[in-house]
Design brief:
heterodimer; A: about 80 residues; alpha/beta; 3 helices; about 40% helix; about 15% strand; globular; B: about 160 residues; five-stranded mixed sheet; 4 helices; about 20% strand
């Protein structure tokens, strides 16, 4: 995923990757990643729970909008902080 | 974070010892305009295809780097999951493919004006490509061109 993101960024497309394993993110270094606490197979949290899914997506989109981030931006998803 | 405990010992050992390709330097493309005015694409490695669409091969050694196009207005019920890996739990995706390929959520973001527009066609890879040479050399540039031709300005990438 990080390799795809890097190619897109090199061509001017802003990207955000949902990332399941910190170890992999730290080795690969995708430009912008939201580190989520979910199991593989559940990258956007809970099946049939649109509110939880949109909370993850919204947190990812907010990384795209954050001018203070610098690459590689590896940011933990914090559902508690989002209320 | 998701952690390694969900995996079998051989998979854990693979993840720890695999020579992951390090991105260096890390490219950076800030948004050029607000998301509410931007065209947003979706890229997945969940191995999803449209019903009737040829899936990526499960037999290619090192993983099949191919991808399939999924139109933005596809009904979630039209998707089929073909991922080759048995190292993750497929139950959630079988229950609701939005959990890995958020077709419905993306349309909701459009309806709410959170994003300006959506790519006409999303990209669905299979992932589990352990020999990514051909993917990096040939397929990822094609995928990038695909999104550029669609005038995509931002992309959400979701693994599985």
């Amino acid at each position: 995923m990080g390799l795809i993101a890097a190619e897109l960024e090199r061509h001017g497309i802003s990207t955000v990757v949902i990332q399941l394993l910190r170890l992999v993110a730290e080795k690969v270094r995708p430009p912008r990643a939201l580190m989520v606490p979910f199991r593989h197979g559940y990258p956007l949290d809970t099946p049939n729970d649109p509110a939880k899914q949109i909370a993850v997506i919204e947190a990812a989109l907010e990384l795209l909008e954050d001018p203070a981030l610098e690459p590689p931006a590896l940011v933990d998803f914090s559902p508690e902080a989002r209320g | 974070m998701g952690d390694m405990s969900e995996f079998s010992l051989p998979v854990r050992a693979f993840i720890k010892t695999y020579r992951w390709r390090r991105i260096d330097p890390v490219p950076w493309a800030p948004l050029k305009k607000p998301l509410s005015e931007s065209r947003v694409g979706l890229v997945s490695t969940a191995g999803l295809t449209l019903s009737g669409q040829k899936p990526c091969s499960k037999e290619v050694k090192g993983g099949d780097p191919c991808y399939r196009e999924i139109p933005w207005d596809t009904e979630i019920s039209q998707l089929v999951e073909n991922h080759r890996s048995d190292s993750w739990d497929h139950t959630g995706v079988e229950q609701d493919m939005n959990v890995a390929f958020p077709l419905d959520r993306m349309r909701e973001l459009l309806e709410q004006g959170r994003v300006g527009s959506l790519a006409e066609r999303y990209l669905s890879f299979m992932g589990s490509v352990t020999s990514p040479g051909r993917m990096v050399r040939d397929i990822i540039p094609l995928a990038c061109d695909n999104l550029l031709r669609q005038e995509v300005e931002a992309a959400l990438l979701v693994p599985v």
